[in-house]
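In response to reviewer comment 3 from the previous cycle, which asked for concrete evidence that the modeling workflow produces usable outputs, we include below a single protein chain processed end to end. The sequence was submitted unchanged, and the resulting structure tokens are shown without manual editing.
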Amino acid sequence: MSDQVTVTINGKEIKVPEGTLIIQAAKMAGIDIPHLCYCECLPSTGSCRVCLVEVEGGKGLVASCAQKVKNGMVVDTDTEKVREARRFVLELILSNHPGDCMSCDKNGACDLQKYAYELGIEKTSFSMKDPGYDVDRSNPFIERNYNLCILCGRCVRICKQQGADIIDFVKRGMVTKVATPMDRPLQESGCDFCGSCLAVCPVGALVEVDRRFCGREWEMKETKTVCSYCGCGCELVFSTVDGQIMRATGEVSCDYICSKGRFGWDFVESSERITKPLIKKDGVLTESTYEEAIKVVAERLIDIKKKHGANSIGGFMGAGNTNEVAYLFQKFLRAGIGTNNIDSSARFLGFPALIDLYEALRDGAVVSMKDVEEADVLLLVNADLTASYPRVGASVKKAILNGAKVVVIDSKKTEISELADLHIEPQVDSEEFVLSGILKELLEENLHDEKFTKKCKNFDEFKKSLDGLKVETIEKETKTSKDFLKEAAKLYGEGKKTIILFGAETVSSQSMGLIADIALLTGRTKASVLPCLLSSNLRGTIYMGALAGFYPGARRANEIGNDFKKIWERDLPDEMGLSAMEMVENMGSSVLGMYIVGADPVAQFPNSSKVAKAFSSLDFLVVQDVFLTETAKMADVVLPGATLAESNGTVVNLEYQTKEVKAALEPLAKPDWETIADLSERMDYTMEYSSEKEIAKEIKSLVPIPKKIEKNTYDFIVVKPKKSGEEPDGKYPYALIVGETSFGFYDGQRTRNSKLSILELNKGNYAGFNPEDAESLSLKEGDAVLISSRRGKITTSVKMLGSLPKGLLFMPSCHEERGVLASDNVDSKLKSPQHRLIAVSVSKGGASK
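The workflow returned the following structure tokens.
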């Protein structure tokens, strides 16, 4: 704790830490000093001079945002001399600021307006000058009116702090303005539209496009909730007027929110939303009443169960619903129907990594964003953070600004790799060999924790496995020099606070084992490994038991005891249950009915042509979703779903924090949990709840909050490195990976129905090529190209991506046909598809090449 100093502000004596700015000390004393350029989360510049104060014994007024307190300092913030100086400064600013307050959306929330009012400024004493800038409305999200800009520099500083750094002051004197390089539109300047500039602007120079003329500040109702996109679980505040969302912000103005969180919520208001139940009649989905739809679903499921048994029915859900919905869905399948055939997209998005990591490190794998920002060494494995998990990317950038060293292992270039101290670019699909090589170097360079390894029961076996792996083999498989592996091991091994970050959906279970081994070998079992998660409630979905083989609390289906039977008042099935891909394999034979909630298996699952054929063989399919997905189009009954913005409940983010979700809007239909409960009651299994809180109470009785478990002994995961993806060959010479983009997300259902899609080429329906590969194939940007794999072929557009190495193609996960090409080979242990790398052939227009 820093030393305390005593200061007196406006006659009030207080103690504050040494080094505190006067403006901060005043706030601690409950005194607000007017300010425009100062922002708590940004470096002070002292440029606006509105925060001037008198310091006893000083020669003149001082900027309170730039002057630190000293012991015994006496400060006055509200003398006539101070007020007169502030009036002078504000009048100067107002002379260059058009007074259009009546039509300004910041009216009532404008700091300049507030301070002018407090100081009684009715008009400026100086001659008015309108800067005459054109208002920039060239992008779909941020309106830039620099006629209202007061040159406080907040937007410039936060853009630099977030790592984008695409705006700055240009020109000098009276013609100074904020601009992008060459004054180009934001979307042409590398802007990722995080909107942080909007959040800190104290006036109306930067305003959300959707917010213009749609309601005054004092008319807005604010609802604190959680973002529905990736697993970062960022807290959002939705501002609504008359039941419509006007904007999304962070709880604090400097909170980082990515473009999807700040602007991607508009899919909620899409005209493509399903608002009424649909029943297929004569092959056509037709609107019906809710009561009729529930009746049809119940009757059909009861009939299938009666004729073929409970295990002829299965359920699958997405990993973006609340804990309460996930819990109720699996309870309905297990207790209401009597089957353990329940799975979720968690199995496709990181379940294997989370299970392996938990078994290896237990709670040592719990890492916060603060831990990341305070780390001195970060090792990134197959993680395009800024595209896939932007909040984590922002924390890594902050760590870099704080002096952290960064090592990136990735075959392609990313935004973070450009900032890294070391970027290892191995041969595609060879990261297991890279990780094994780093382990060998940690041992050879004596960078391991010898004392800790004695706690590990199988260290000798683990060491022997590495001894048997030749350096020549590693270099051959990875096309990477041993020197790079040695440098990576040195940086990581010598770090004081090190964290490994990886994309949970991008690494193999073997790679996950090797990542855990690196942490164990160096004795780092606390806050040492962060699996980055792609879905908003992936952890919660697993923990609620929406996964084949696992009940709530991550308890295995064959080890649950009697507590679930007692509370659910039903005998429960003994089988472990079929996983998602096992259900697909058995459709039309032993699996005849499916209930899908918030997921699109026909588009999302690998080898989607085969999956579509399997779904078409079902006797009955019911889908509950927000949009008419590919799976919903095949359904016999479609029930409208609710978005997270219309839901109450909880989710668990990648930091293992439980976050409260609150509905900012009334759902267009019914909350998902009510639909499940109504269906269950119709099938003679009553689940009586009056609200989500009652469901949460039941969950707590069965699944207490997990306590931290520290392991006393550890086991290395002995791995023989191999390539986990498909090997390119003469017929399929290229490798293709699927991943996230800045403005697309996962299956694209949300981003395609959002204005985000305007910034995504062809709404994500393209394939990225290394320019040299494209030239060798006579392909140009925008050309139609035929891409074929061992499962199928698609025609898509070409996009040049200099970030890709030769021989590697990239396809956005939101591509509507991505599943056609992917392999459905399944990891026999975890029953999870291993489809990251796909061998493909490419031709321009026609025949395969």
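The chain is about 30% helix and 20% strand. We consider this sufficient to address the reviewer's concern, and the full set will be provided in the supplementary archive.
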